[in-house]
C-alpha cells in the first residue's frame, strides 16, 4: 500500500512523529523511541525509552546527561529497518556527529529530515552530503535573504586583528559548548593564532571529546588559570555571571549567525560580533532546495515566512510545520 | 572603502571612549591621503554630501528584490540601510570592485539629483555588504557610530606632537581632505590660522545641595540655566561664526543672529527663541535646529536670540585667563545689538537656601535650573571639576500604568521597548505619554517578558497590555496640548523606576498631573 507523506511523518506536540515506524525525530519530551539528529540540547533530550543516533551523538548525549540518559541506545549505521520503514543517517555538517535522517517507506515518498545543517566546510565535523528525497523537511533558522554568512576564516581574522589592536585586553568569545566553541578554536588556529586558548569549565569535556575524535584544537588552558592566554572562550551565559569579573576590561565577542544583524549584536552588548554559524545561510538554504529538487518542502522552525515566499516564487510547494521548542540557534 | 567600513563597524560596537580613540587613531595612521581626510570629514560632520532619502533607497531595493522578501527582511533587521546592504543581490567582484572613500564621496558630490540613484546602485554592485552599509550611511547622513567631532579630532591629534585644542583652534580654517593638517600633525609646517576660530568651551558638572554646603556662597556667582543650546558667537575681522559647544558651525541656520553680531570678539551664551521679552520653550528652538537654511516665515514665527553669560575675547584681547568677576564686568561694559542679544542676569543670593528657593520657583518655564560659577575661575577648556556647577531642577514624577507596547527599531528590534502609559480618569485609564528609555538593559528584558505575558490584544505591531504594571515616569516639563487626548504633553518623559510592587489601582490620577501644569 502506498503511503502519503502525511501518513509517514506528521508534526505532533512531541515533535515529528513517524507512525509506520512508531518513532519520533528529535522529540521535545520523553518518548518510547527517539531518532536524534544531533547533540544540541533542544534536539537531544534525556529520558527516552530508546535512542538511535550516530555514535558521536550518543557519546555526546552521554557526556551531557550521564550514561543513563536513555534505557537503550542504538548506533545508526547503514540503512536500518524500523517497523514498516527504512531509516538511514547522513552527515549534516552542523556539529560533530550531526546527521540528516532519511525515511524510506516500502511504497511512498522518501522523506529527508535535515535536522540543523551547514554546507560551509568545518574541520570539526563531516561535511554535509546531498541526499535524494521527495519530501525535504528543512530548518529555516536563517530563512531571509539578509543572511549571507561571510567566510568564517575572515571572521576569525577580524578576531585576530582586534587582539593585535588591543593587546592588553582579553578577548572573550561567547560560543555554544557543542560545536561552535571547537569551530571558533579551529578557525583561530587556521587564522594563525597558535598561543594557548583559555576555555570556560563548561566547554572542557566537549573539547576533550573533540580532541579524542582526532580534531586538532592546539593547546587549551582553563579560563580560571589562563596564564598569558589572550583568547578566552565561554558559553555566552557566562558573560552575565560573576565569572566574567576576573577579566580586566575584556572585549566581549559572540560567534553566531545572528551577529549579521546589528541590533542582535547590540542587544547582547557585544563589542566584537563574529558572524560564524553552524547553519545554512540563505544562499545555501535555497541552493540546497534547488540541488535536491524535492516535490515538497516542509519547514520545521526558524524564519519560515521568507523561505515560504521564496518557494512560492519558485513554484515549489511548501508548508510550515511551526514546531515549537527548537531554539533559533541555541546557546 | 573596506578599511572605512571596518572602522565604522568597530566604532558602532565599541562603547568605550578610549577604545574608540585607539581604533580611530589607528585608522588615521594607517590610511593614505586623501581617504583618511575624507573619512575625518565624514566623522566630524564637515562634509556636505547630497543626501538620499529613505524612500529613494526603498525604490532602489524594490528594483532588485521581491517586495515581500524585502518587507520581511526589513521587519527583522529594523534598519533600512542595513537591510539593503545585506540583501542587495550579487557579490562584489571584478576589476572595479575596489572603491575608495574618495571615489565614493566624489561621485556622490558630483552627481546630479536625477542620476544619483543609478550611481548609488552601481556602487552597491561593486561593494561588499559591510562597505554597502558604510556607503548607505554616508548617503543618508546618518553614521550613528557614537563619535563626536571632538572625539575624531582628539584621535587625529593622538600620537602626534599636537594637542586636540591646537587642532580645534585651526580646524575651522581647513577643508576636506585636510592635507595641510596631516602634514602639520606629522611634523610639517602649520596650516594658516583659522579666521574667527572656535575656542574649546568650559563645561560644568552637576552638584547636589549636600556638596554645595561645603562651599562659601560669596565665592560664587549664579545665573539661570536656560533651556536652549549653548553657543559661542565669534565675530573677528570679516568673519562671523556661530558655533555649538562642540565646535559645529550652525550660523547658516540662524542668519538673524549672524546679522546682529556687529561686535569684535568671541562670546559665550545661550541660543534661544525669543518673542519680545518672552523666551519660548525648547521645542520651538528645536524646529530651527538641524537645518541648512531657514525660511523667512520661520525666522518671523521663531525668532532667535542670544543670551550671553561669558566673554572670551574682545577687540583682539584674550580674556580667558581673567577671573570670571572681571570677565563679567567686561561683558557688561560691552555693547551688543539690543534686539537680538542680551545678558543672562546674575541671581541675587546670600545663602545656598536663597538660591534653592530661586531654583524651586523660576519665573519662566524655560529655565531648567541654576548655574553656579566661582568668581575667580579662569575660562578653561573642558570640564574641570569644581569651578562651575549646574544645579538642575528636580524632574516631576507620576506613577502611571503601562497600556501599550511596541517593539523598538534599531538597537532594540525584537524587544518591546516603546511604551504608552496612562493615568486614571474616573474608572478609565487615559494615555498621557510615551517613553522609550530610562530603564537598564536588564529592565528592558524584564519589561519585554512582562509585555509578552500580559498582552490582551494586538493592533499590528502594537500590543495592548493588561493594566497591571505601574511605572514611575519622570519628566522635565508639562505643556497643555490640544493634540493629546489627556490635554497634556510631557517633555522628555522617561521611565525612572519600575514599580513591580505597586498595584495598578494605586497609580496616579489625571487630576494629579493636571495640577502640575
Q: Roughly what fraction of the amino acids of chain A lie in strands? A: 25-35%
User: Could you tell me the strand content of chain B as a percent range?
Assistant: 15-25%
Number of domains of chain A: 2
Low-pLDDT sequence parts of chain B: none
What is the highest CATH level, the class of the largest domain in chain A? Alpha Beta
Q: What is the number of independent domains of chain B?
A: 3
Oligomer: heterodimer
Walk me through what this model shows:
The complex is a heterodimer of chains A (331) and B (517). With 331 residues, chain A is an alpha/beta fold. Chain A has 8 helices and 19 strands. The longest helix of chain A is centred in the middle third of the chain and has 14 residues, at 152-165. Chain B has 517 residues and is α+β, with helices and mostly antiparallel strands. Chain B folds into 3 domains: 2-140, DNA ligase, ATP-dependent, N-terminal domain (DNA ligase i, domain 1), CATH 1.10.3260; 205-392, D-amino Acid Aminotransferase, Chain A, domain 1 (2-Layer Sandwich); 396-516, OB fold (Dihydrolipoamide Acetyltransferase, E2P). In chain B, 35% of the residues lie in helices and 24% in strands. The chains are: A alpha/beta (331), B alpha+beta (517). At the A-B interface, α3, α6 and α8 of A face α1, α2, α5 and α6 of B. Chain B: Keywords: ATP-binding, Cell cycle, Cell division, DNA damage, DNA recombination, DNA repair, DNA replication, Ligase, Magnesium, Metal-binding, Nucleotide-binding. Chain B: Its EC number is 6.5.1.1. Chain B: Residues 306-425 form the ATP-dependent DNA ligase family profile domain. Chain B: One of its GO terms (molecular function) is DNA binding.
